[in-house]
Amino acid sequence: MNRYPPIAEHGMVGDLQTAALVSSGGTIDWWCTPRFDSPSIFGSLLDRERGGHCRLAAELPEDSGATVRQLYLSDTAVLVNRFLAPGGVGEVADFMAPIEGRVPSDRHRLIRVARVVRGSLAFDFSCRPRFDYARAGHSLTRPDDHTAVFHGPGTDLHLQATDRVTLRTDGDDVTAHFTLAAGDVAALVLTGTASGAPAPDLPSLAGIADELEACRTFWHSWMRSSTYRGRWRDMVNRSAITLKLLTYAPTGAPIAAATMGLPEQIGGERNWDYRYTWVRDASLSVRALIDLGFEEEAHAFRRWLRDRIEAGATASGDPLQIMYRVDGDPYLHEETLDHLEGYQGSRPVRAGNAAADQLQLDIYGEAADALMVADDMGAIRGWKAISDVLDWLAGNWDRPDEGIWETRGGRQNFTYSRLMTWVALDAGVRLATAHSRPADLARWTAVRDTVFRQIVERGWNEERRAFVQHYDTHVLDASLLLMPRVGFISPRDPDWLSTLDAMDRELVSDSLVYRYDPAASPDGLRGSEGTFTLCSFLYVEALARSGRLHQARYAFDKMLTYANHVGLFAEEIGPSGEQLGNFPQAFTHLALIAAAMALDEQLDKAETRPTPGTGLRYSLGRD
């Protein structure tokens, strides 16, 4: 029997500084505090026996016909597990009150509220924290029957229960068993604090009800800023909330995913730590939020990004590192946690990320887009930050690098890296002209045009009739699906349509898209991987922009069937439709938003200018 829940069997709650995963069975099996990138307190997702967990669930006897359903309260980050049994119907609501503002907090509350709405149900509770990725022991103190404090290195975890729940000691852990009848409510509150910090106030049901309502109000108020009125509002709204949950409020820095170590292939070695801020992912996340009308997040991230640029050159001498911690710390030492068995035995489990030292020149294009999209670079500070970077880029663009996929098989002249270099320089030229800002326009323009010509001449493979991954290969690469979006080529250009056809034949499997073929283009790692969900949504967007609306809409609708039960996506989709990799992933959700908006735009155009054959239909073939 598999001891691990599927990756997709989770929802996420968070307070904008940290996040927790809650399984559909009622187990918190991933939570780091006080930040996304802090060591875990609950980590049973990476080691079922040693990792630590907190479980609150109704007792459901086998063969009773009972079922469990997990959902979000609409347009919020309040997660509810519903337990439906012949003897009663109960719920457990999990939420964290958002912590706004630019001041990091060392106090984070995760609230679990159990109630019964029909009949009666018995509930089981266990709290078994394992501090520092389960490397450190802890001690337990019991001030009273409703309170427990777990003391770990540098961190205390306070557990407080309301009157209907009596906590029992189980070694250095805590359990409880209680029964609720229709109308009864009980709550358990987990509060992470710095060691020795004052204990939180004892919770009351009235106070917890107020906190729940304030949490709902926060998310409903935030969602009112969205300008999206398209066809897929539920999925787009859920993706927007997910991106917001993955953004560290004190600095405005989005992380790539809430987890570390979840495998791209069960039993494989592609198990990375994604709890950091990639300049690329963050820039594109912010762009997606801007497109939905969320300007505040854009301003916060641009401030964080300018601070990174103004901090000076990295150890390598480059203006930017590809990723940072959420507070801007550039040191992400990678270590292997050999004591953890990994999800379903997938070793090694890595904390930190050695790819931080890689050269990936494409980040300057995404960064320029994030800094310039609101056209606010007329500000002196903002313009100086970007112009200094573009001056550097004009002298360093023609270097082999590791590329967008962070390959560990050696540097190449990646076409996508050159493409985003062109994006950065083109944006700089246009903005400097529009605002009459000082710039070495002659040099920027000359380099931009040289990059363009090089991509056309060397990134194009005449034999394949397609743009390819790098200059010395015939391998295709799904990152190039962005070529039309960034304005490098018309989506109806014959060379682009030929490239899209080649990808369709080689990288696409029933709407699911592989990044590239690692067998044909070795990336320095053993094993294989699933289809990359980001690329699948980029494919939808590219189809839509190219006028292949039947194919685009059908592919998009099929992609939505791979979302989990609460609308979340991991990094990849495996051979049987299972979600793989870190979860939930910002890259995937930002691409979903972009695909939905592009498809809406093209469908609206088609509907206002009807022509024969444009009606949407199920098709056994291509457009």
TrEMBL record:
SUPFAM superfamilies: Six-hairpin glycosidases (SSF48208). GO terms for molecular function: hydrolase activity, hydrolyzing O-glycosyl compounds. Coiled coil: none annotated. Residues 604-623 are annotated as: Disordered. Residues 5-177 form the Trehalase-like N-terminal domain. GO terms for biological process: carbohydrate metabolic process. This is Glucoamylase. It comes from Streptomyces venezuelae. The lineage of its organism: Bacteria, Bacillati, Actinomycetota, Actinomycetes, Kitasatosporales.
